[in-house]
Design brief:
Chain lengths: 289, 294
């Protein structure tokens, strides 16, 4: 009773929405952690952020036609990744430009779709759901799709691990070894699109980067090896997500009563806290060394 | 195979021409490298050294001529050539130890994870020892000094057992002592492992004692042979298209534009390089107007 009672408020373990949230949250945290390590190492945080934001267009379009948000996120993010690739995201100079151009175009569409959603849609809450996520409102029918996409994205990174790593260190050295640097980069962008789409259903399109970049950046401060960083990032993301879900469930009993706080807030706050903490750990280590 | 002088060569470049964006960067470049030979590719910045390397690596198409690797046109996935790129800044935050980068030289092309990790670790260890990098193999590569990074990059290139090692300006940005160490290391690799080495530099003197052959690039054209055959006033004058003198100062070679020939100096594409401080005697007042390879 006692301590566990206060941590896990009554009904936590029996609530189906909580079960779904824990499963989907875990799958998403693992994918974003694994993919995010390369996002940080490749300096593609802006592309990750942009793909997250662009998901808004897909989510709002899906709401207009009555489809689930995940399909919208995935479809539009994959299209956007392809567009970025074509516009030239892989040239260092053209990278931010290509990302920005595609981002601007997509968000323009999102403005229209969100307007139509709020004026014509039956569900007035869809805007907040798309932008900031609502992990407790996901139907169990979504779980298989989430798991399949998560496995796909992680499998791509595991398969491409070594060519991708060398291409990240030096595209020149990779090309000299006969690695098709452009193809590898494009496949990576696809995995990134899947990861941001998945993150969007848990904590929303705007916040999806937090889960992608935060745990990865934290992990990279703590280890000298990329694959260890991936495990660490997945673990940190998982911890932040699950603790966030518990706190959000508990917050139902906090003021204002009968209205729980959003999960996204807790997850992002925890991710940020972990990042600050890793900075302190790094600082202590360097002073000792 | 079997084309007279080039038969048995590990690399032969025949009449190579490269045009980039309408500009003829290289034209009629001819030379061959025999197995185990140490060759210096000498030329100032902009002479086309990196372009030539990129062409040899298959990353830059040729507009004329051809390149044969071990007698055959090169394929994209060759392990015959190891490559040490021009000095680039590795990100100090990159979570990669020197040892990991060397290991990638073995299997970066493969998908998935390594199964035989013990065998892999042994080869990495052996390679680290060969370049004298054991003591810093566990440090993040981005935090190593220039000379240490060079050693790691050389080990990365060599671990796949190439027949030819290309090193693009490995001495640039190194202090004199590190540069001498890298030259000694490369010469040793060449001698002990029978790996042909092609090393580019804009400074000739550090390489003079170890070079079997020299390929001198100027104005997009090349002269090749032993250093006695190439570092001569008549040969280099022909290459530059104006008169140059070759002067021996205390055992160091200086290549200077002919006196009283200012017009040609301005017409020349080459720039004056002072990467390494010359000995005081080798730096007379005329340095300001001469083209000098100190």
């Amino acid at each position: 009773m006692s301590a566990a009672f206060f941590v896990f408020a009554p009904g936590f373990w029996d609530n189906e929405a909580v079960h779904i949230a824990l499963v989907i949250g875990a799958a998403v945290a693992i994918v974003t952690g694994v993919v995010g390590v390369f996002t940080v190492m490749r300096g593609q945080s802006f592309a990750g952020e942009a793909l997250g934001d662009i998901g808004t267009t897909g989510g709002s379009a899906a709401a207009l036609v009555g489809a689930g948000p995940l399909a919208g996120f995935v479809a539009v993010d994959v299209l956007a990744a392809a567009a970025m690739e074509l516009v030239g995201v892989q040239r260092v100079r053209g990278r931010d430009l290509a990302t920005g151009v595609v981002l601007g175009a997509a968000i323009g569409l999102a403005a229209l779709f969100l307007y139509l959603d709020t004026t014509q849609g039956a569900d007035g809450g869809s805007t907040v759901t798309i932008l900031f996520g609502s992990i407790f409102a996901i139907s169990s029918a979504t779980i298989p799709a989430v798991v399949v996409l998560a496995v796909l994205a992680v499998a791509m990174i595991v398969l491409l691990y070594r060519p991708l790593l060398l291409a990240t260190v030096s595209p020149e050295m990779a090309a000299a070894r006969g690695i098709p640097v452009r193809v590898v980069g494009a496949l990576y962008l696809l995995a990134l699109a899947l990861a941001t789409a998945l993150a969007a259903i848990t904590i929303g399109t705007i916040l999806s980067t937090a889960l992608l970049i935060g745990p990865a950046a934290t992990a990279l401060r703590l280890t000298r090896r990329p694959w260890r960083a991936m495990f660490a990032a997945a673990g940190l993301g998982l911890a932040a997500t699950w603790i966030g879900i518990v706190l959000a469930y508990d917050s139902y009993h906090w003021p204002p009563h009968e209205h729980g706080w959003p999960v996204s807030f807790f997850v992002v706050a925890l991710v940020f806290g972990l990042y600050l903490l890793s900075g302190a750990v790094e600082w202590v280590r360097e002073r000792r060394a | 195979m079997g084309e007279g002088a080039t038969s048995g060569a590990v690399l032969s470049v025949e009449g190579l021409g490269v045009r980039i964006a309408g500009r003829q960067v290289l034209g009629g470049v001819d030379f061959a490298i025999a197995p185990g030979e140490f060759t210096g590719l000498i030329g100032s910045n902009g002479a086309g050294k990196t372009t030539l390397f990129r062409a040899i690596l298959g990353l830059q198409g040729a507009s004329s001529g051809r390149i044969l690797v071990e007698g055959r046109p090169r394929t994209r996935r060759t392990d015959s050539i190891g490559y040490v790129p021009q000095k680039f800044l590795l990100d100090p935050d990159l979570p990669l130890r020197g040892r990991d980068l060397v290991g990638l030289g073995l299997d970066a092309r493969r998908l998935g994870f390594t199964l035989n990790r013990k065998r892999r670790a042994e080869r990495v260890e052996e390679m680290l020892a060969a370049v004298g990098a054991e003591s810093f193999a566990d440090t993040r590569v981005g935090k190593l000094s220039g000379g240490e990074q060079q050693r790691i990059l050389i080990a990365h290139a060599l671990i796949s057992r190439p027949r030819l090692l290309l090193a693009d300006e490995p001495l640039a940005n190194l202090d004199l002592r590190s540069a001498q160490e890298v030259v000694a290391l490369l010469a040793g690799i060449c001698r002990d492992r029978g790996v042909a080495v092609l090393i580019s530099a804009h400074e000739i003197n550090a390489l003079l004692p170890v070079m079997d052959r020299i390929v001198y690039l100027a104005g997009g054209r090349a002269a090749s042979g032993t250093s006695e055959e190439v570092i001569r006033a008549d040969v280099l004058s022909g290459l530059y298209g104006h008169h140059v003198d070759v002067i021996d100062v205390h055992g160091r070679v200086l290549i200077v534009a002919g006196a009283g020939d200012d017009a040609d100096l301005h017409g020349c594409e080459e720039t004056v390089e002072h990467e390494m401080p010359a000995e005081p005697a080798a730096e007379p007042a005329r340095a300001a107007r001469d083209e000098v390879v100190p």
